[in-house]
Amino acid sequence: MNQLILKFSKAFIILVLCLFICVPGTVLAQDEEPAPEAEAGEVVDVPPESEATESPVVEETVLPTQENTLLPTESLPELEKVLPAEIEPVETEIPPSAEPELVTDVVKALDESDAVLVDEDGNMLPLATIEAGATLKAADPWFVDNQDSSHVIAYFGSQNECDAWDKPSGYSSYSCNVNPTPVQAAINDEHSNGTTINLSGTFTESVTIKKNVTLDGGGVTTFAPLTIPGENGVETVIGVIYIDGSEAGGNVHVVLKGLNLNGANLGAGYEAGTSAVAGVLVNDATVELIDNAIENFLSANGIEASGVTAIDSDLILNGNNISHNSVGISLQGDSTASGANNALNFNGIRVSIEGGSSAQLGLEPTWTDKADYSPGSVVTLSGDNSMEDYFLPGDTMMVEVLGPNGYAAACDATVDEIGTWSCQVTLWANLNAVGDYSYTATSLLTGEVFSGKFSDGWHYSFLQFMNVESGNCGAEVSIEVYLFYYTDGHNPIKGERVYVFFEEEEVASAVTNSNGSAKVKLTVPRGANAIFAYYPGHTAMYSESGLIQQSYVPRMDCTGVTVGNVGQPSGIVTGNYGETITVRATPYASLPIVFETFFAYTSITFKLNGETFGWDYMDNERVAYADLDLTDIEPGTYPGAITAHFPGGTYLLPSSGSATLVVIGIPVTVTANTGQSKVQGQNDPDLSYTSSNPDVTFTGSLSRVQGEDIGTYAITQGTLKAEKGYEIVFVPNNFEIKDKYTPVITWNPNPAVINYGTPLTAAQLNASARYNGVNVPGKFVYDKAVGDILERPSQVVNVTFTPTDTILYKSVTASATITVNKGTPAITWANPGNIVYGTSLDNSQLNAASDVSGVFTYNPPAGTVLNTGTHTLSVTFTPSDSGKYNPASKSVSLNVLQATPQVTWPAISPIVYGTPLSAKQLNATSPVAGTFNYQHNDFGRIYPVGSYSVFVDFTPDDVVNYKPVQLRNTLYVNKATPVVHWPFPASIEYGTPLGDTQLNATASTAGTFTYDPPAGTILDAGTHTLKVTFIPADTKNFYSPVTNYMNIRVIARTIKIMVTPTGKVYGDQDPELHYTFTPALVGTDSFSGELKRFDGEDVGNYWIMGGSLWVNNNYRLIIDYAQFSISKKPVTVFADPIIKNWNTNPDPKLTYTIDTVLPFSDTFSGSLERRAGEDPGDYPISQGNLALSANYDLSFIGNVFTIFKNPGPEDSDGDGILDAQDNCVSNANSDQSDSDRDGIGNACDSTKYGPTATLVVPVTGRAGFVPFNCFISTVLELPSSNSVNGSTGLCGKTGKLVEQEEDLLPDDFPAGHLFVSGVQLTVLEGLTAVAEVQDPAKFIFSFAIPAGMEGREFTVLHWDETLKNGAGDWVEIPAYKEALDGSPEITPLYEGMEDDGRLVLEGTRLSEQLQVTFSTNFTGLFVLAVK
Predict the structure, then answer these.
(1) Which three-class secondary structure state does DSSP give residue 526?
(2) How far apart (Å, rounded) are the C-alpha atoms in residues 79 and 530?
(3) What is the mean pLDDT of residues 1290-1314?
(4) What is the pLDDT of residues 1373-1415, one digit of tens each?
(5) Res 73: pLDDT
(6) CA-to-CA distance for 985 and 1000, rounded, in angstroms?
(7) What own/partner pairs with CB < 8 Å and gap ≥ 24 does 1086-1090 have?
(8) What gap in Å lies between CA 990 and CA 996, rounded to an integer?
(9) Rounded distance between C-alpha atoms, residue 340 and residue 1305, angstroms
(10) Tens of pLDDT along 94-117?
């Protein structure tokens, strides 16, 4: 089976090469220059198609068919979704490692998220760069150290990520840290204060920010946590990103840029007490949000949710998408939000404002959920009070939408309790929906109108390869693609990015130019067999194009060469020293069958280190051989030393391969000798060995395992090397390191006994060292030093001995014990200085000291107050360490002197006139008992304004120990401020003059009051400040003047407006609207403006509202609304008397007159009827279905329809020829012309010049557009028997006839017409629609008359979309007329507009076959109607 597959593959490749050889070159028109090539991603303008030949011709390269294209499904897992149904992918074997992600998935993901790939400097990266790939793989928070601008710090979740970090260039040092929450760790790092933290990738953590910092996600960073911890917020509100400036007094400024916050995964539960969650939560801080996406934060389980919540904070928002949240932005406390260009779509509430918060975001009060839609979309129209109180709860909003091609729709909604509303309309699901729309939303309560716009600009997009340049494997080639949408022909799409690539590699992109063309450059890969192009679409304008492909085979494919020898893997050549070995080379390519065709007898050149050592022709197995002599090559391994070169061929590129040369030497055994050693610390001796071949010369020496501890160490080969051609087989042995000698320390004599506190001397520190009875020189180090004080009762003294010869002797230690007895402490205490009576004994007197710690006991003790005289003080000292010291004592003398008592009299605070002196001023005190005497007995005395000296004498009760004292103070008396009392006045109504009720201030002393404004003033509505000025009578002792203020509130005067009900008859002018009011206006105030009623002219009741009626802000108008009634307009219809001759058809039109003029261009619908019958006589004329709208009261006065019969032979058409001999009874034709002699007069014959050969296309024939025949006319017939006959002049065009239903008409049918049937004729020339044709081309239309409608008056209407400035309207096809020569009269569609070009070649008429026929030179929509 495998052989069969191989034979099939070979045959296929031969076919590919044959086709490839036959590839034609691109031929340019004379004097035409080729289009310039572009670099990868560069846009190149292509000359417009209109400048080339009449229709563009694209020369295609002949390549293998799609059925034979190899498509490895394992490496392109998504490709089957876009392959045409007839292409079956062929399975091929792909290496296990080849599992790349399809590039279109990456491109589409970037496009759908509107993400832009940038480098560290913020420059956009093309997708076809290595730097772009590295950027896509990065996922780290990193920032520049704020203390060292050349240093970068990063945080990762694992060490592996740190190790794989692709560091940003341009910095001198880097540090990487591992933390399970890397973003929070980067924020907490003090080195990130005030810096920008760069982010990329997806994070499930939530973070808290309490400092100035910027988080920049570059548009490729997502925060999508599963839950949010309770500490990530304030009180009961938590956020994914929580910014808290409360600890810094609100002085925190944070910037969030290019982040995606998604709450879709939240749902793991929150801590108890949580009441609300937010994507971004800001508390007492300033935050800038730039180009972020915050979505899917939805309220659930009693927990409110919002995209952004601000508490006492300032938000600056620009370019953000805050959508699909229960609340978009929530402002609480005293918060502000400002900015522009933010999308707040699909939120339950766009902006929630509470407390003293405000927002200036440039939002309109009404909006649509998108700015642009596609056909069939459901449009949601909404309104809210985000910026101002526009909508009243309970109000009804009436919404009307108008669009292209006569689209009109309406919906209504009730405003909820928070002022929001929404309703929906559905766009047409076809291309008639494409265009601009406008809408109005009218309040039913206030009549206020809001308006807006949206559009439907969506199209299906298509891609097509234009010019594909062929090239060799590895060469750079140009690829050109064409992007367009199809609406009435090809329409190029400009300014959109498309992507082109080989297989799933080497992506390049370019933006289409004005012709929809884009050219990119790609490198042809090895074994290329297909090229692909992709356009991801534009969600607002164009659909995704899908992946298109074209087969591609390089002119010359890449090749390779494997090198080796028999028994070794490819890439390795092995041989023994001195031997000659055979090297084998095997060339290969992506298309293996090429070897059989072109590789035979091709020579391969072999080289060793660049020098040729042989060449050979390839055999039938595509293998070449060369011999290599290893005699002069040292044994060893030589990577890449051997190369083999393949020169290439007509369809294959040259290439080279290499292999590692391994030369194996002659073995010689070297054995390390036993018993080799040294004493620890000595230098190593030379290591010796024994060789198995004494004739072999060696260089270098043995070595051993490193180490200097006692023990054994392995001897190694070291640098020992045998002479050329030999290879050492080494037998190791051990090397031993032995221990050192140990000296003995003696201490003679033993140290003597000492008292505690006696320092050590050399008599105690006298050790010596000996080994085998001999003194060993060296150094002694004691752990106690001469002069040290030893502790009781004994101490051990240690000594360390270091020998002078440290190589042979060890360092040793020894110890000795010294006995320590108790000591006697010394007390130091001088006689204290004199003190005065009242001084308690303290450490100033009781200040004995000792050189050891212990307790002093004084007599008398501290705190004792001694009388005047000389006293003895004593102390007993008890040492703390009674084990080391004995107790001791000492005495001193102290003199006590008489004291001056302390008397305190604070400076007297100034007083105002009228304040009597009291204990508040006369308040001297002393801690000593005694008597105070104020010299002038001032208690209760009132001093006038001025300054005065005041004295006090203090006499102590204990005159033995204290002296008497006198103090002086100063009294200042200042002017007094009169106290003015003014009660808060009650509110007054506008028009009430100020009087004593409001101007009623009083004062604490006599004087006069002046008010501003004065009594009698009438104030406007609002809050006013009243002022009073008081001047006291006694200006010597009182300040003057004194001013006081008081607020008074003036309430607007309530005026009740009683609207007078009124009305009119439908069609009349509105009468003037009147009203009365109470109470009267103040002074000369008067009304302005006028009442207004709800719009409408139909019969019914309309509320009369306040309209623009107004006085001024001093009044509050309460309007008692009334209704405006429009009654029906009476109309009387008078039928006209009608007569006709017996046996003539049809009846003349039944006419009538009316007794009034219809307003507003109103018209009747329907028509009068008469009693059925065709016999001579009178028939009553009745109203029939003649009617007006509900705005009229219609009365009818009938008449009679008379049929009379002339005597004599019957001549129905009155042409003088009796019916029995007339060849056309229904139409007068006195000449009885019958051109084709078929017995039917020309006046009644639709084919008066003979039968017409026709090509009838049955209704069951091919669908779509039908080619018009060039030799006989073509009939397009529908199941309804309606048809169009196309003449042979339409040769080269195609046509399509479609039945048109009444409910799909572009506009309402004209009044007075009844729809019967309709057809839409579309004609194409190529892909271009044809609106009109030139002679001899023409169309003959035929409408079948339905059964039961015989005898009615018919007409044909044509829809002309050019009328009414492109809005379109109906136009009537004129009736059939003949010229003087009897031929049909040709008339323009519009009289007097011959330049229009559209002609009616034959007017409408009823044929004998009960068909309405007519002929035109234009296409479009035609409708048969009954008048």
Answers:
(1) coil
(2) 12
(3) 88
(4) 999 998 888 889 999 998 888 788 899 999 999 887 789 999 9
(5) 29
(6) 9
(7) 1086/1111, 1087/1111
(8) 17
(9) 43
(10) 233 333 333 334 334 434 444 434
Handedness of CA 780, 786, 791, 794 (dihedral sign): positive
* DSSP characters over 141-206: -EEE-TT-TTEEEEEESSHHHHHT--PPSS-SEEEEEE-SSHHHHHHH-GGGTTSEEE--EEE---
Q: CA-to-CA distance for 160 and 1222, rounded, in angstroms?
A: 107
Nearest alpha carbon to residue 585 among 600, 601, 606: 606
| pLDDT value for 1122 | 92
In terms of Cβ atoms closer than 10 Å to its own Cβ (0-12, 13-18, 19+), residue 115 is middle
SS3 state at 611:
strand
902-942 confidence digits (pLDDT tens): 899 898 899 888 888 888 888 889 998 999 888 776 788 88
**pLDDT computed for residue 27 by the predictor:** 31
* 248: DSSP letter: G
Among left, alpha and beta (phi > 0; psi -120 to 50; other), residue 1321 is beta
Report the distance separating Cα 993 and Cα 1082, nearest Å.
11
Residue type, 417: E
Q: How many CA atoms lie within 13 A of 1248 on its CB side?
A: 18
Tell me the two tokens of residue 876.
């007993």
**Strand runs labelled E in 224-275:** 233-234, 237-244, 253-262
773 Rama sector, left if φ>0, alpha if ψ -120 to 50, beta otherwise: left
d(CA 464, CA 533): 8
Rounded Cα–Cα distance for residues 307 and 2 (Å)? 62
The 3-state DSSP class for residue 897 equals strand
Would you tell me how many other CB atoms lie within 10 Å of the CB of residue 9? 16
| Cα Dmax for the chain | 185
Are the CB atoms for 592 and 575 separated by under 8 Å? no
What is the token pair recorded at 1247? 């084919």
Kindly state the DSSP code that residue 1281 receives in the 8-state scheme: S
Residues in the chain: 1427
Taking the CA atoms of 1085, 1089, 1094 and 1098 in sequence, report the sign of the dihedral they define.
Answer: positive
Task: Give the 3-state secondary structure of residue 433.
Answer: helix
Q: Which helix (H) or strand (E) holds 101?
A: none
Joined together, the tokens standing for residue 920 give 């508040």
CA angle 142, 143, 145 (to 5 degrees): 135
Average pLDDT over residues 600-623: 86
DSSP H helices, 344-405, are none
Query: Which residue matches tokens 């002038």?
Result: 936
> Per-residue pLDDT tens for 781-837?
988 888 888 888 888 888 898 999 888 888 889 888 888 888 888 899 999 989 988
Average pLDDT over residues 701-710: 91
* pLDDT-derived band at 35, boundaries 50, 70, 90: very low
Distance of CA 410 to the CA centre of its chain: 33
Residues linked to residue 184 through DSSP beta bridges, in sequence order:
none
Residue 440 CB contacts under 8 Å (≥ 6 apart), including other chains: 399, 400, 449, 450, 451
| Listed residue (507, 556, 557, 505) closest to 527, CA to CA | 557
Separation CA 676–CA 682 (nearest Å): 13
From the number of C-beta atoms within 10 Å of its C-beta (0-12, 13-18, 19+), residue 425 rates as buried
Specify the amino acid at residue 976.
Answer: A
For 499, phi then psi, to 5°, come to: -125, 135
Whether the predicted model's global pTM rises above the 0.85 cut: no
Spell out the long-range contacts of 718-723 with Cβ–Cβ below 8 A and sequence spacing 24 or more.
Answer: 718/687, 720/670, 720/689, 722/665, 722/668, 722/670, 722/696, 722/697, 722/698, 723/696, 723/697, 723/698, 723/699
